[in-house]
Structures are given as C-alpha cells and as structure tokens.
UniProtKB/TrEMBL annotation:
Catalytic function, reaction form: ATP + protein L-histidine = ADP + protein N-phospho-L-histidine
UniProt-recorded Gene Ontology molecular function terms: kinase activity
Ranges where the Histidine kinase/HSP90-like ATPase domain occurs: 302-419
Regions that span the bilayer: 15-36, 76-108, 115-133, 139-159
Keywords for this protein: ATP-binding, Kinase, Membrane, Nucleotide-binding, Phosphoprotein, Transferase, Transmembrane, Transmembrane helix, Two-component regulatory system
EC number per UniProt: 2.7.13.3
Protein name: histidine kinase
Gene3D superfamilies for the chain: 1.20.5.1930, Histidine kinase-like ATPase, C-terminal domain
Domain of life: Bacteria
Length: 421
C-alpha cells in the first residue's frame, strides 16, 4: 500500500511540474506571437494571407502548448495534437515560419520515453506536419531555412534517444548491481547455513560422546556405591574429568563464533588423540583396543578431524548399544609411503585391507564391536550417523555401516589421500 501511495504521489508531482511547464511555454509562445508576428504582419501586410495577431490566433498559440502537461503519460498523442494545432496556425496565416517550442519539447519526450518505433513515428509526424504547414501557409522559407528547421527537429529527437539509451544503460547497471548483491547475500546465507551445520555437527559429536561416557560411569558408580566406595569415587572422578573435557571442547567451539577470539587458532582433535579416546572408553566400561598399521603421514586437517570424529561417534554408539560384556576394536591403516596404489594386506584386528572401488592410497579407519549386533536396536537415522556420512562424503571417501555376520557392528570408512599423503 505504501508503494502504491508513493507512486501516486510521484505521478501527481510529475503532472504538476509538466502543467507548470505547459503554462510557461504558453506564456512564452504568446509573447513571441504578439511581438514577432505583429512586426511580420506590418512588414508583409500587403499579403492578404497574413493575418494580424488576434484573439483566435492567440488562443491557438496558447492551446499548442497545452499538450505538454501530459507529455510523460501520452507523449505521442500529445505531440500529434500539438503539431496539428501548429499546422492549423500556419495554414490560417497566423505565423511566419514559426517553429513551435512546445512541439520540440514533445518530440524530445516521445524519443526519451518510448521505443525506437514510436519515437520514429513521432519524428515522422512532426516533419509531415511541418511540410503540410509550409505548403499551406502564407510565408515561405528558403531551402537553407527548411534544412535548419529539419535539423532542429532531428536534433531534439536525437537528444531524446540519447537520454533514453543512457537511462536504459544506467537501469541495466543498477539491475546488475542488484542481482550481484542478491547473489552475494544468497552466498553469504548459504555459507552461514553451512557453518551452522558444521558447528552443530561438532557440538553433537562432542556432547553425545562425553555425555554417554558420563552416563555409563555414573551408572557404574551408583551400582558400587555401597559395596565399594573407593571404586565409586574413581568412577565419579572420571565423570568429573569427562565433564570438564566436554565443557572445554564446547567452550572452544562456541568461542570460534566470537570475532577475534584466541580460540579460533586452537587446534582441533585429530588421529593423534585416538590413544586418549580409547583410554577414555576403557575407563567408561567398554574394553577397547587400538590397532594401527603403517606410519602416520601428515594428514590434511579436515580429514584428520573427520576421521577422529568418526571413531568418536562409532565408539559412542558401541558404548550405548553393544550391551554388557562387549568390546571394541579401533583399526587404523595408513597408506605405505611412496605407494599411491591400493592398499594391500589386512588391517590388524581383522579389518579388510585395501581401499574399495580401486581408490588411490588413503586412510582406512574402522570401529567394530562384538556386542548384540543385528539384534540390537541400532538406529541409522540419527544425527550421529548422518553426520558421519556427511563428513566422509565431504572428502570423497567411502563409508560402510552395518552389522557383522557373526554378531557385532562395524563402521568402516576410507579417505582418499593424494599420492598417498
């Protein structure tokens, strides 16, 4: 509604301005008519066709400027009415070779506000009207005079076309700038959404892992609280330590959102932190073994973090769902240095060797447990496994998740590394 009101106000203001211009042109034309045409009549009064300025002539001269008031809304119609009145004035002998200023303004308006075809039609109408008025009028001009008149009309038309093309060019530049700005905003929103998703995934991994460990340790402390107070105290101490670690990691990640925070430069966990993670799972009650094959290369930071989070999430799921008495094996196979081909052999702990699908040398990580396996109610639609899939797919890896034939559950992923590095 406000936009429509603004357009209405702008249209009213434009009509007021054009009406004022029409009144000004009418007054100027009358002064020119009464002074110049009076002198011309006195000099050429012997010609019967030349009329002295009178009321009819003054009225026609004033009316010829009236269409200027609607030059923006109906420019071609206003020009046609104006040149028709000018032709009538010349035919009745009230003007001696006069060029109407109003017709020049209207011809400019047609060229500046309408397309090429309509502006050409306006120029043609103006020239034909001038030709008709010259043939029917009493005064005659020399050939250079007619050429000058045609040149003036053409110049007014050319000026209008130039202004229109310039406006169209500026409008195109503004439109292009608006499109670029919208595209930039869309890219910014997409980047923010991606960053929020990444942070949410990191927070989920950290919270899910540590809370699961704390829950298991707290349950163990509750069971042995009366029978073995020392053991219960150790479990509660482990809960406290795990909680502090969780708070520290979450504080580090959240502080990344604050501009200029020193935590932005803090290192993220990687494969080098696997021994501490395995030890933490042992303390939580899940016997876990770490088997590593090959020499650890300098892994890209993204793959290093993704592989660590995969192991963390998989062990968290094993802790939750494998059941009592279950154990887990974390297998890591680094590519042999200098061998960019498929990895041969088998990983320690029974992990199959080689990269599936003939991938070049890369990092292979697996977590398997011997718990309830297919009988366990493991959901593969949760945020944790979905986050694992996203991480592996982001780096072009291959992920296999599912129960093992003999019981248990396995999460296995391969991350391709360029030239085995």
């Amino acid at each position: 509604m406000s936009c429509a009101y603004s357009e209405s106000v702008r249209a009213d203001r434009t009509l007021l301005h054009d009406t004022g211009l029409a009144v000004l042109l009418a007054a100027g034309s009358l002064v020119f008519y009464l002074l110049f045409d009076q002198a011309a009549w006195e000099a050429q009064g012997q010609l019967a066709q030349v009329h002295a300025p009178d009321l009819l002539g003054s009225l026609l001269v004033a009316l010829s400027a009236a269409p200027v008031a609607v030059r923006r809304r109906w420019p071609l119609a206003a020009l046609s009415v104006c040149v028709a009145i000018d032709t009538l004035i010349d035919a009745l002998g009230y003007s001696v070779g006069r060029i109407g200023i109003a017709s020049l303004v209207l011809l400019y308006s047609v060229a500046a506000r309408r397309g090429l075809a309509m502006s050409m039609a306006g120029l043609l109408v103006t020239l034909l009207a001038y030709l008709a008025g010259s043939l029917a009028g009493s005064a005659t001009l020399s050939v250079p005079g007619h050429v000058l008149v045609v040149f003036v009309f053409t110049a007014a038309w050319g000026l209008g076309r130039t202004i229109r093309l310039r406006r169209a060019y500026l409008d195109e530049l503004r439109d292009r700038a608006d499109r670029l700005e919208r595209a930039k905003e869309a890219d910014t929103r997409a980047a923010r959404a991606e960053e929020r998703s990444r942070i949410a995934r990191e927070l989920h991994d950290v919270i899910a892992h540590h809370v699961s460990v704390m829950t298991v340790q707290a349950a163990a402390a509750r069971k042995v609280l009366r029978s073995d107070a020392d053991l219960a105290g150790e479990a509660l101490t482990a809960v406290e330590d795990t909680g502090r670690k969780a708070m520290a990691e979450m504080r580090a990640m959240v502080s990344v959102l604050r501009a200029g925070s020193p935590a932005e430069l803090g290192p993220q966990p990687g494969m080098s932190a696997l021994p501490a993670l395995v030890e933490q799972m042992r303390e939580a009650g899940l016997p876990t073994r770490l088997d590593v094959g090959g020499e650890p290369p300098q892994l890209p930071a993204g793959i290093d973090l993704a592989a660590y989070r995969l192991v963390q999430e998989a062990l968290t799921n094993s802790l939750r769902h494998a059941g009592p008495g279950a154990s887990a094996v974390v297998g890591v196979r680094y590519p042999p240095e200098g061998l960019p081909g498929a990895l041969p052999g088998a990983l320690p702990g029974g992990l199959p060797g080689g990269l599936p699908g003939g991938l070049p040398g890369g990092l292979e990580v697996s977590v398997r447990d011997d718990g309830r396996g297919p009988m366990g109610p493991v959901k593969q639609t949760g945020h944790g496994l979905a986050g694992i899939r996203e991480r592996v797919a982001l780096y072009g890896g291959i992920l296999n998740i599912g129960p093992l034939p003999g019981g248990g559950f396995e999460v296995r992923a391969t991350f391709p590394l360029k030239d085995g590095r």
